[in-house]
Amino acid sequence: MLSELSAITPIDGRYRNKVQELAPYFSEYGLFKYRVWVEIEYFIALSKIGLSQFPPIASADEDFLRGLYLNFSEADAQAIKDIEKITNHDVKAVEYFIKEKLKGSSLEEFQEFVHFGLTSQDVNNTAIPFSLRLGLDEQLIPSFEKTLAKMEEFAQQWKHIPLLSRTHGQAATPTTVGKEFAVFAERITVQLNTLKTTDISAKFGGATGAFNAHRLAFPQINWPEFGDNLVTNLGLIRSYPTTQIDHYDQLAAVFDAIRRINVILMDFAKDVWQYISMDFFKQKIVKGEVGSSAMPHKVNPIDFENAEGNLGIANALLDHLSNKLPVSRLQRDLTDSTVLRNVGVPLSHVLIAIKSLGKGMGKLILNEDAIRADLDRNWAVVAEAIQTILRREKVEGAYELLKDLTRTNDGINEKSIAEFVTKLDVSDEVKMEISRITPFNYLGYAAE
Is 59 a catalytic residue? Predict the structure, then answer.
């Protein structure tokens, strides 16, 4: 029997408690539920378009029908699985499940309008995008927003704390701790907005996308318009024209948007890890936790490492999804089907990563003493500021003067800078201006 200890993947094993909120959307149970959802809404919509053979159904019957998906249980999913053992076709099993529910009701005589004129992909390519839309809106996007809010909180909290920059790993123009968090917050904001505004498409148009059977049976109905309305009511857009399957271009766009967010979060995790290794951040000690099985003193930045690893796995899978799904032989092959069953896998790794980042950020304690000591060891970074003022004053070779001063193995400090300033051939007013520059206040707009 499957348990956390016998599960093959850590998603359903070790990390199950971290991703269980995604199960209603991306599990086998969820897939059956949203297939039933699409079939029921289609069935109800058919009753409203003026077909003499299928008149409008009563509101009580609509409530009964919608209850089939609103109250969908694991027992219902198992019932469909049992039917599938006979049909060897999962979508046909859903159709038979619904028809069985209609038996003995006032709707039994209309049961042949369940799955009327449809192919499996009308159901799958609507149910899966629909569940993805809900999963993003209700779970993943709020989790991204929570991470973003924490970044923005730190950006404000530490916006006045000067920090030595490092470009190419070398000391560079000072920034602030808050500004560096703000950089990541701005990047996430832009990409998250792209994710939120990217439409998710569905395919709904019969066997090869042109409503052939529908038009033959009821030529008086505008079936493309019908399909548009049905899909729009689910919060999606209908792809048209299509083959038997959706183009998946919009799904690919969604996966790429998530992948870009993940890249930013990986970059963030690596930077914070580096700051921890430099002692700029300490971590809150959790009683009972062990950092190393051999070295008792260690408090490792495992949350940021865990996030980085899971984001990497997620992106490898998202990359495959976005590259593979839009490619299918002629009007369709079956490769998309097995791939689509894995949509929840990368999203689960993303959620694990987000929770790890949140846990890691919650442990951060700013070590201002270490940050200030680092700045104090690197007075050479004010050379840029000094040579810029000297250029303003038209001092010839200003850059070269500072280059000669600072490119030395003897080290540059506050005293050597002060001695250099006294020898400059500029006014006392300019010397005073230069003497006020320190690694702690040369910040530009970083502190604003």
Answer: no
State the catalytic residue, choosing from 73, 106, 277, 292.
292
CA angle 78, 79, 83 (to 5 degrees): 115
Is residue 286 scored above 80 in pLDDT? no
Per the prediction, the chain carries an average pLDDT of 94
* Cα–Cα distance, 430 to 47 (Å, whole number): 84
**CA–CA dist 345, 338 (Å, integer):** 13
pLDDT in tens, 364-416: 999 999 999 999 999 999 999 999 999 999 999 989 998 888 887 677 899 99
| Residue showing tokens 């010397």 | 431
Q: What is the distance between the alpha carbons of residues 344 and 353, in angstroms, rounded to a whole number?
A: 14
| pLDDT tens sequence across 96-143 | 999 999 999 999 999 999 999 999 999 999 999 999 999 999 999 999
Instruction: Flag whether pLDDT at 211 surpasses 50.
Output: yes
- What is the average per-residue pLDDT within 344-349? 98
CATH number for the segment(s) 121-216+223-370: 1.20.200.10
Question: Comparing C-alpha atoms, which of 76, 153, 71 is closest to residue 364?
Answer: 153
Q: Check if the beta carbon of residue 211 is closer than 8 Å to that of residue 227.
A: yes
Cα–Cα distance for residue pair 270/265, rounded to 1 Å: 9
- CATH topology for 378-435 is Ribonucleotide Reductase Protein R1; domain 1 (1.10.40)
The candidate with the shortest Cα–Cα distance to 440, out of 418, 406, 410, 414, is: 414
The pLDDT tens digits for 418-441 are 999 999 999 999 999 999 999 999
Which of 6, 168, 293, 297 is catalytic? The answer is 168
The C-alpha atoms of residue 51 and residue 298 are separated, in whole angstroms, by 73
Dihedrals φ, ψ of 54, to 5°?
A: -145, 80
Query: Catalytic annotation on 247?
Result: no
Rg (CA), the chain: 31
pTM of the complete model: 0.94
Evaluate whether 21-116 and 378-435 have a shared fold: no
